[in-house]
């Protein structure tokens, strides 16, 4: 691909149609200043889509269209076309030749064409995207752009590399994706708002619906269970009735038999009781005498048993302790033997240690003496060696000095004569140089003064531009933020207004009436009044039931609406008909109490038509500051209506107090929505005002910036000219100053050299004689030291042999000594342990011996006591038995009667118990029969009431469990308060709506995730392409610097690489024999060469198909211009170069040349052929 031609008509100075045909390779466009050469480059830049007038050297669109000249009228449009050879299909368009056209009309309207077909600016931008051709690419480098590259910010340099990397297309895709992401976020926010509103309503209705469904389910379960229980009970009780009737007859017969048996037992018991009384009297009289003796025998027996048990226990304890004592004796003997053996071993080892210790000390002393002797000897040897080396070095120095001195003395005389002649000539030069230096200093001061004045003005303008730019940036940020916020708030406001228009949040019945558009329905109370935010909570608490009252014109309208609600079965609603509302006369409130705000009807705003409604609803509600004020009014009966506080506490005239948190009630939601709508409207208006003022200020600053920049452009050109003059003057002054300094230095040098030469000449003659004497002495000393060194080597070998032998002898003894030391420490630890064990065993043995002795004595005492007790018991038993024979016989008879009595009593008790049981059973059966008959009647009634219900089959064994379950179900049903059975259908509608919105939100979220992933992939591609290009261009730039700037080293440094969006690229150059320095410190020519090297580095990575260069070599000398042209020619096989130039070398090397000329009177640029 290459540029075949440019056609210009009506653009700037080209008042006539011009067709310029280009060839491949180098093409030069030449002509005098002001002829319109640069207008060709501006035309190319303009047709490629440049929108900034400043970049094409214009202030407004009118400056682009030919403004007319002598005998030539101004044109009404400007038109430029590029003809591009696309034979290699470089551009993504199916045509071998591509024509790009742009037209601008005097009205300011732009038209774009691709191959004469209308297109958009975006289409042209996309066509050249990432090709290296475009308004922001490096294919068109205008006047001063080379220098501007050097002065560009790091971000602008990065932008040039991005263009070369071919990532503009991806950046455009990313921007599009980010824009779509913002739209998705906006839609998500809207859906979230509606979803939250519907969700809240759904949650509220869901609870009611769940409650209604639960109620119905419980009721069905309870009724089915109840019928099952009734049927089961009926069958069971019917069977039980038959069974108990038979049981009653059997019980009557058994009761009669038991009564006759009970009477016969009672008679025999009376007879036994008389006999026992007589026997008891006799036994008591005889038995009192022997009772005391009996007690004594029992006590002695008990004491004997206790003594015997204690004696046995002590014997067992003695046996156990004697066993333990024997074991202890054995262990003590073992410990005694172990201690004895350890003592013997310790004595033997101690003697061995003493012997080894003495030997060790003697050996260490001997080794130390030998090592000290060796160390002293080695030190002496080292000193001798260093001495020899120093003497040798000194001898060599003396030889050199003698030779140098001889040579110096020979040439010194000639040099002294030469220096005297040179000094006379240099003094004459010095006088001439000082005169010339003074003249150049005056000229330089004058130029510097002019330059300083220009620089001060330029700095002032730059500061003003910087300040204005900062203000512009801040304004842009404020406008962008405000615009984003305005759109966000507007979106939220529209969503809320849609909810309000759709009557969302109202009760279902209210919503249905409002949406039905019945004529005469004027709105809901809360929508027709304006309640200040301060009083919203008070009004909500004071009349919560009236907030959603519907205002209608007549009672007939209300009737019509009620019929609609009944037909559709969509709930209830309250209506206030303007023709039926009656409000009593207003009472003046005379309450001189702090904290009383006034009647609620006077605190809200509404139209005159609805004032009667406000008075009706709020006329009897007094608003006060707090609870204390309200309580005071109610307690003193100062107001006949209700009193409400700003915090929402309601006190009725009869004393009821209502308060707390209303939660997320319907009324609070409506008030909150109304509040938010008001707040959003105010916020949107405020933001629009901010945007409007920001745009006005931005326009003012833009105009101010344009004026500053125009002045700076003029200053820049003036300053550059002055800088060149100052640079020339300074160089001339510095040259003269350097010349004076150089000559002065030469004079000083010559004088010093002359004096030194005379002095050195004398000294060197003396030094030659001294050095010869010293050298002879050194040779004698060195010979002596070398002879001593031979003897020292033999002696050192002998000392080392003795030390090695001694160390070998003692190494085994040292190991034995250390092992013995370890064993001594081990024996000491074992002895201590054995001693402790021995002492513990001795103590335990003594303790056991004492305890056994004590127990033996105790046993002896107890055995004696036991013998004494046995004798006493035998004597008392013999005495007791002799006196008790008659009583025994009477007691025997008494016991027999007692046995019989007990058996009869037992039997009587059993018979009595049976009799009572039978009578009780009989009574229970009677009661049961009555109850069963009553239960059967009740069950029949219950079954009759549940005849439509399907019964659950219940087994008799599960009846109790079923009844418990019935009680639970019934209790749960009774605990249900108000149940809205219509909520089930309402929840179904809201749930469908919520699920639809949730699906939409899910789809949007998926779309958002896809966009985020796309942005991430684009970022990765951008980063990869950028860093590939950056590394390649960095290497190319360094290579170009080496080739074109005298082996200079070039480097592109990436700053802030961790943050790609905020990072930039700095250009650094290190010239030969100089440190790396910033570009701002370079001369004009150096800057141009660096910029050109950078551009060439980009061409090496990605050459542009065609490139326009406007006076790129203006700041270069002949040598560097030739280098530049040589490099450009190397790229002509890849790129086409069109140069606007005044340089003859450039013209000479060009394949074709076009001239541009202008007749100043006519003011029209023309193309003329040029031969060179």
Structural class: alpha/beta
Number of helices: 20
What's the number of extended β-strand segments?
23
Q: Which quaternary structure do these chains form?
A: single chain
Q: Major sheet: order of its strands?
A: 2-1-4-5-6-7
Main sheet properties: 6 strands, antiparallel
What does this structure look like?
The structure is a single chain. Strands 2-1-4-5-6-7 form a six-stranded antiparallel β-sheet. A six-stranded mixed β-sheet has the order 8-20-21-3-22-23. It is built from 20 helices and 23 strands. α6 packs antiparallel against α14 (666-882). The protein is an alpha/beta fold.
Structure keywords:
alpha/beta; 1172 residues; 20 helices; six-stranded mixed β-sheet; flat; six-stranded antiparallel β-sheet; 23 strands
Give the SSE map:
Layout: E1 2-9, E2 18-21, E3 26-30, H1 37-47, E4 77-85, E5 97-105, E6 110-114, E7 117-119, H2 121-127, E8 140-141, H3 145-151, H4 154-165, H5 168-287, H6 291-501, H7 508-515, E9 521-524, H8 525-528, H9 533-542, E10 550-552, H10 555-568, E11 575-577, E12 596-599, H11 600-603, H12 611-618, E13 621-624, H13 627-635, E14 642-645, E15 650-651, E16 657-658, H14 666-882, H15 885-945, H16 959-975, H17 983-1044, E17 1049-1055, E18 1064-1070, E19 1077-1078, H18 1084-1101, E20 1106-1110, H19 1118-1130, E21 1136-1140, H20 1144-1149, E22 1152-1159, E23 1164-1169
Parallel strand pairs: 3-21, 3-22, 8-20, 10-11, 13-14, 20-21
Antiparallel strand pairs: 1-2, 1-4, 4-5, 5-6, 6-7, 9-10, 12-13, 14-15, 15-16, 17-18, 18-19, 22-23
